[in-house]
Amino acid sequence: MAEKSGADILVECLVDLGVEVVFGYPGGAVLPIYDALYNHPTIRHVLVRHEQGATHMAEGYARSTGKPGVVLVTSGPGATNAVTGITDALLDSIPMVVITGQVPTQLIGTDAFQEADTVGITRHCSKHNYLVKTPGRLAEVVHEAFHIATTGRPGPVVVDIPKNVQIATAPYARPELKVHASYRPQTKADAAAIDAAVEMLAAAERPILYTGGGVINSGPQASALLRELAALTGAPVTSTLMGLGAFPASSDQWLGMLGMHGTYEANWAMNQADLILCIGARFDDRVTGRLDAFAPNSRKIHIDIDRSSINKTVDVDLPVVADVASALDDMIALWKQRGHQRQDLSGWWARIADWRAKRSLSYPETGEEIMPQRAIADLYQACVATGKDVIITTEVGQHQMWAAQHFGFEAPNKWLTSGGLGTMGYGFPAAIGAQMGNPDSITICIAGDASIQMNIQELGTATQYRLPVKIFILNNEYMGMVRQWQELTYESRYSNSYSDSLPDFVKLGEAYGWTGIRIEGPQDLESGIRQMLDTPGPVIVDCRVAKLSNCFPMIPSGAAHTDMLLDPNQIAGIMSDEAKALV
């Protein structure tokens, strides 16, 4: 068997594993790997402008294609710059393999040039990590890394490879995957748990399906099965921020997103339900509000592939440890086998109709300035009119919540946003990754004027690879969500939340070879959006929106999930110190 260098072994592994795209940035500790990639016929390397951008591109690629994202960065600052994206992928359960260079093994621990303890640094922000000390172990580790990243609850895996290991040689043959006693994710639910779940759902008078990102992560089949279960039961459906698109927003059974900026009807239905079927969600604090007031009279079933997520924050009556698709398939089969019929939930739906009548997503319009909600609604209608596949990414802030509220998602893997970590700077590189994986789709990053600047250097990446990404900036000249919280919490003392020196986004885009469009008022909104969608190549839109608009509904930190603010006049005031700590 011919021997290969560690770098060549790594590249052979990537080929064997079906990797088509790698997002990376070269440096001294990975030069052997870059040499092995030189003119490689099957792997496309995307040269980013910053390593954080590489990780978010890999996330966007993974979330929109279902394939693992792959990152290649150098040692020291290359690896540490990737930590934010690694953590983001961990909290949002995104399959990603991050390959980092490391100083030679004999220099580890000597504070060598560009040395950092990558394994130590990423131990608590990755699903698993490795330091490979011999080339003979490299193939086994890489194949195992992809297996761990993509199975069970997906997540990021880091493979740290010293430079001398990249140069040294070893024989290569595709390894057989070993089954580890310590890593055996349970994908099939216990039959007794499925039986109990079906009977509890059949007996419920006020059920609700509470869905999350786990439905998306499980694959397209899980979304199809969710829709079938909803049709069989007639139950209302709500979703976390991460689960949007798993259930169609156009359905009469859809209540909208729940949680801090969710709809009035979704939060009240959760509170008044007699049965909550939690599917691939985790009862996070932005959903539950004050725990002692969360859905106090409901029985709760929790389907999750991650055993540690069950009973972590909310005690449930029936845990179901399984892959979402597998569990839903079993529940549907048993429901039909038992002959259960669609329940008469007319009384429950009548109560929901009363909550819907609040029209909690309505907003004032003056006709003199663009309301940000209107900008999103018009963007949505224009995207639908194209008849094309559209992928939406967002940065983090008010614009993110407005997009979640006012853009209707009909299918999974079309909504990419940072949920658990809330990473400003995520959306634009994620859009680049999604566009790379879906070249025939329209990919739009909805951004704020502050967050778009976090990774704006990646304009050059989109230009280099001729990616027709669109950036739609809701420009209110503030860090909007920070300002909104300062109104609620600190009597409108806007400490460092006003963006005093914004660039001219149109000219900045043009400097990188993009088309720049500025939308100044309501009369220009429709034509500006249409111009963005009709323009080939990358486009950046500076949409000037009302500066002091706030995002409603809103549940203040420390409040119950039914204590929702609906009126802008409710927001001014002082919160308790305990509540401030939860913001």
Automatic annotation (TrEMBL):
| Domain spans labelled Thiamine pyrophosphate enzyme central | 194-330
This protein's pathway reads: Amino-acid biosynthesis; L-valine biosynthesis; L-valine from pyruvate: step 1/4; Amino-acid biosynthesis; L-isoleucine biosynthesis; L-isoleucine from 2-oxobutanoate: step 1/4
Q: Which domain of life is it from?
A: Bacteria
Q: Which cofactor does it need?
A: thiamine diphosphate; Mg(2+)
* Keywords (A to Z) from UniProt: Amino-acid biosynthesis, Branched-chain amino acid biosynthesis, Magnesium, Metal-binding, Thiamine pyrophosphate, Transferase
Textual note on the cofactor: Binds 1 thiamine pyrophosphate per subunit. Binds 1 Mg(2+) ion per subunit.
Keyword Flavoprotein recorded: no
Q: Would the keyword Zinc be found if you checked this record's keyword annotation?
A: no
EC number(s) stated in the UniProt entry for this protein: 2.2.1.6
InterPro entries the UniProt entry points to: Acetolactate_synth_lsu, AHAS_TPP, DHS-like_NAD/FAD-binding_dom, THDP-binding, Thiamin_PyroP_enz_cen_dom, Thiamin_PyroP_enz_TPP-bd_dom, TPP-bd_CS, TPP_enz
Catalysed reactions, as listed in the record: 2 pyruvate + H(+) = (2S)-2-acetolactate + CO2
Q: Which NCBIfam families match?
A: acolac_lg, PRK09107.1
**UniProt similarity note:** Belongs to the TPP enzyme family.
Q: What is this protein called?
A: Acetolactate synthase
Which organism does this sequence originate in? Sphingobium naphthae
